Each structure stands twice: as structure tokens, then as C-alpha cells.
Amino acid sequence: MKDTPSLVASLSLLEKAALLSGANTWQTRAIARISLPPVWMADGPHGVRKQVGSADHLGINGSEPATCFPTAATIAGSWDDELAEQIGAALGREASSQGVGVLLGPGLNIKRSPLGGRSFEYFSEDPELAGRLAAAYVRGIQSEGVAATPKHFAVNSQELRRMVSDSVVDERTLREIYLTAFEIVVREAAPWAIMSSYNLVNGVYAHENAHLLTEILRDEWGFDGAVISDWGGSNDAVAAVAAGAALEMPSPGFDSAREIVAAVESGRLAMADLDARVAELIDMVRRVSERAAAIVDLPAHHALARRAAAESAVLLRNEDDLLPLASGTRVALVGAFATVPRYQGAGSSLVNPTVLPTLAEVLPDSTLEVVGVAEGFRRDGSADEALRAEALTLAARADVVVLSLGLPEIAESEGMDRTSLDLPDEQVRLLRDVHRVNPRTVVLISAGGVVSTPWATDAAALLHTYLGGQAGAEAIADVLTGAVDPGGRLAETMPRALADTPTAASFPSAARTAEYREGPFVGYRHYDTAGIPVSFPFGYGLSYTRFAYSDLVVDADGAEVTVTNTGSRAGSDVVQMYVGRVGDSALARPRRELKGYAKVRLESGESRRVALPFGDRTFRVFDAATDTWVVERGTYEIAVGAHVGALDLTATVERDGVALAPSTRAGVAPTDAEFAALLRREIPDPQWPDGPLGENDPMDRLVDSRSPLGRFGFRILDGRRRKADAAGTPDLNVLFLLNGPFRVISKMSGGLATRRLTGAVLTLVNGQTLRGLGRVIAAYFGGRRDEKATKKAFDAAAGNRSAR
Description:
4-stranded mixed beta sheet
């Protein structure tokens, strides 16, 4: 086959334009005459979700069976780059075996707030940890000849109005917090693709944001892959190509191709930009088409999922060393999640597992004696005294109660953010009552994120299992019995209350903008700097053994420390290194930041010298005045320990660098003037403008439509949403529409609707009912005619079968 530049040169303008949008929901377009095949894409943050029947992008319809690994939020607890790479390789093998060339993951957005509805898909509140783990996934996936697609680039922090929300953030915070993880992935793992996010970033949609896609991603970081839109996330196809975006998904028919052709012919779009995007897409297709389909050992992948879930579980409390449970312990298994597990989140990442053992099935096969299983509470949160009474009776008969609690499905989902950090009241009530009957109570938490724990003293042992995937139940049995030491450490802070979080008053934003006023003070950076007590600090987690740290030595190249297992059994710990500037700085800086970590496994009595090297990211800070990374001259504290709240070993080093000019020293809650100074522009108006609805207004604004038909449409959608909420199962299609802009009418139609039709619908809902209806009819039939003609011309030029 010819080289890529020659292939690009051989294509017609229509062929080039058509290649930059999908053929359908999941495939790229093919050009037979140059032997360019279509490529399958599939969601894949923690398992392959290939749909071959009725396709959708929200995980509603079924998919081929695949290993459901623990979610990213779970694996983050392992702090284990090697394990993450093994999981990535397994994901790549399964994708390859199913004919999938592009896997849409991993997700690595920063957890700005613990209320984020999609937190289960993301790793951490810290960019160093998130970036290293995501880079490991990418290396693993691409080792199998499958393109990884880190997502969502960038500053995608909330689900509410995610397709229209404008993330307003200063450049320093953007670089240090929200882009650093992506930078690590690009520089250290070289992904072949990257997915842009739905939202705007400082007034420009991410998929057409030249500052993100060209100036930073390509020119600074050296990315040479293809930028793919989130599904329905392309706004202006021409602007996207000019900014550096290659592929619009899913298929908008040939509407975008016609816009690109017209823009090139009129001179609004440079042919060089179009050629660059086409070359990036062809390179990606060729990369993923080079290897034969892999053969998968599903039992081995299930075993890997089991080990990963066990090593990622975070032991938060273990009074009097209740865990591990001795062989023959008589256990009462209580809780609705013991029989119907919560093992993954809801939405586009929903995997069809190859198997799904439950805790009620696997625990009786362990070394424990299960005296009975009781549901204990209803999943929907409603009271049921009979279930509660049954559970208390059973609890009184056992040596130990294993109580399986967690967040219901409705609490965590793509398309909606959480409203609380609390467990349902009925679950907490049951815990308190069970504790009175049997104080030897082990609480298991199944949730994709943090929960508040004012009830923690009623749990003799507390194990946060997050969402453990299809082998999660077996992993829990391994941890409870001591077959596996709980190696997990928190990748996010567990605050005492929602009010303590830095975004408590502003997240999620229902306005047109989401203002990131807290700046770099996200997660532990906020709590640690402000001295706010937390339930469990970032990096925290217990083991079944004990570790001691000693002999910290710091030189110009890094830190070394001796770690000793002082307990009676083998176990693992995560050695963490934090760096903070000593003395006054020209910038408002967190007290300390994670800059290195190492997972270490030690036998009883074993000691090991652990090195934590300094790197390019260790001391840097982004200087907005010069738009460059610099090291601020001065003294820095190097602190090493088991978590951010236990850093007993410290040393200082001097670093040469620049003396930064005084700047705005805004903290978590800057004034309007301070925030504007940080932005270096006026704060944008957060309110939606008055006047007619536009194609980028969210559809939930139909509530105020000038047309009775528009208001009626809103009542139908909102009624379906309320009904789904009451049933405890989110209606993702409705959430997508209510949060989405009107442009999805054409962008998500697969060619059934055009941008012209969207404009006609807007005419209708803005009060011109008769004129709008007429335009809708004309636009629909005109669009169908245009689609048929463009498709025929493309297939004829491309030599595709349907043209014959």
C-alpha cells in the first residue's frame, strides 16, 4: 500500500471530507479503491462493549459478552501501574478478538467534586496518579494492536448540561490540574487517538478548541494521533477540522461532509488542515489493521479481574484486627448487594459480563460458615420492617455479620450528578440496629465514589470495594478470609460532609457556565492546605500487617526511604512522596502535592530500600504571565509516608529557578475581581441569553418555549425522567436529550436529519408554529434527497460496493 501522504493526495475532496465522520454509530467509513477498511469502535473503560445489533451510545441495548473488569475508580485504589497495564493488555486482547480497532478509554478526568455522576469511570482527584495509571492502560491496550482513546479532553467535570456547559478556568489551573494527567498519557504512552469532551472550555467547544487540540496537544506534547469527538459532541465540523479534530462520531450522515466541502471550495477551510486530519485518521486505521485478531483466555481474564478487585479494595477500619476472618467463622450475610451486586456504573460503559458470581454464591464456598443470607433493606430506599427484622434475627445467630451496603444505581450514572454523599437512610438505620445486636459487624461499601461515614464507629471493620467488576464477589471473599491482603489506598479524599468540599456551593452548575473558582485547590490540596478534618485522607488504607518507614535520604535526584514490614504476615503498601514549597510564594499554592509513589510488597520482617525519583513534573508550576512551566526558586519540603495525613519523614531541598513576579493570590473563593484577574478577561455571563432558542441551547429550556408544542414536548420528556427516577433506574435517553443541545437532532440522526432540519425545529419551538412545521417538512425531504445524492457520489468515488 502507498504511504499515507500519497493516499491522501489520491483522494477527492468529497472522499476526504466524508472520512472525517462515522459511517454509522460505531464504524469509520471505508474507501475500497485504496483498500482502506472500516474500523469498529467500542466503549471500553473497564470492558469491551461492542454492539452488533441495535446500536446506541448510552449502554441501553445489549452487547457481546466481555470481561467486566473493576472500574477505573476501583483500580485507582491499587496505585499499581503494572496491574493497570496488565488490565489494559487484557482489554486490548478482548477488543481485538471481537474485531474492535479503537477502544474508547480509559477515562481520566479529575474528580473536581465527589458528586460527579461519572466518577466511577475516572481514576482520581490527583493528576499524577490519574495520569500514570491511564498511561499504563494505554500501553497495555495498544500492545495488542488496538488504539486506546483517553477521554474526555478536557475539563469535563459534571454531567448536568454536560453538552452545553462552559468550563471557565484560569490557565494555571487548567494546566496544573486538568491537563497534567492527559499530558502524562500523551508523553509517556503515545496514544493513537484521544476523545474530546462535550463541554466548552473558556467559551469554545472542546472539539473545536485550537488552544487545546493544536497549541497544547500537538505543538507542546507532540501528539500525532486522531482526535475523536464524544458521541454527539461535534458542534461545527469545519471549525473542528481547522482546530485539530479528525473524526466526528456517531455518523451525522453526509451533512458535515457537505459543510467541509463547501468550506474548502469557498476558502474558509484550508486544504492543508483537511489533509492533516485525513492523514491522522488514515494512520490510525492503518495502525489498528496491521494485526490479526487475538485469541482470548476468558478464565485467565476473570482471574485477573478477581486479583485486581481484591488488590484495589480499601480497608478503612479494622478494630481489634477483626479481619481477616478465621476459618470456620459463622457469618451472617446481610444486605441487598450480596445477592444482586453493584459491580459497575450505568451508561455508555455498561459491560455484558461473561459471568457474574454473587457474594451469596461464593462466600459459602470459602473457609467461612455462612449461617444465612438476608436482604435487610430495599434497594430503592423504602422502609421494609419485615426485611429488617429478618436481618436482625440472623445477625444475632452469627459470630460476625458481613453487611453489604452501597449506593443504588440511580445515585450514580452517566447523564446525572449525585445529590448527596450519604448512604440511603434505611441502610444506615439497619447498620446501627445490626451493630446493637452484633458489634462484630463488617461493612462492605459498593459505590463508584466516596460516601460520608458518620456511622463508621458502628462498623468494627469497613471495606470500600468500590465497583469490583464481574469477579468482585470472589475478590471480597479473598479479602475477608485473608487469602489476599487488602492492598488498596484511597485515590480520593473521603470528606466528613459535603459542605467541606471546595465546590459545595457551586457543583454542579445549572448555569451556562461552570466557574472553577477553587483553582488548584481540588481534593486533598484543599483539605490539607485549609486544615479541614476529613473522614479518611487521600492515600489512606489499612493492611493486615504493619509497615514502618525510616532513613529518608533526599538528594538532587530524588528521595529514598526504607520500608519494613513489622507485622506477622506478607502484605503491600504504597509509598507516597509529596512536595510543597516552603515560605512565601508569588502564587497561591497547595501545601503539598503528590509527586511520586511506589507499590511495595514485603514478606513479614522484610525491609526494602524504595527510590522515588524526581522528574520534570516534581517542582514545576505554570506561570500564566509567561505561559510557560517554570520552577520557582526556593526551598521545598519533601515528605514521604503512607498517606497525605501521615508524612512523618521530611527533608528540604533547594531548587534553582526563577523569581516569579507577584500575581493574584486567590484561594478557594476568589472575589470577582480576583477571578477575572486570574482569567485575564472579564468573567462571562453565567445566564442564558434572552430571546429565541438556538441550536446550542439545552433542550430543557423548552420549559419556557414560546410554542405550546415546545412546552408540551418538555412535559413529555420531564415526565419520563420523573417516572424513571421514581423507579430507581435512570432513563439515559431522556437525560441525554434534556441536557443536550438542539443540534443533536441532526448530529445524532445518522443522516435522517440535517442541520437545516434542526433550524426548522427551532423555528417551530420559538413560536412560529405553522412556518416551522412547513420548514420541518421541507427540510426533511430536502435532506433525504441531499443525503441520497451525496452517498451515491461518495460510494462511486470510493469504489464501495453499494455504488455498484
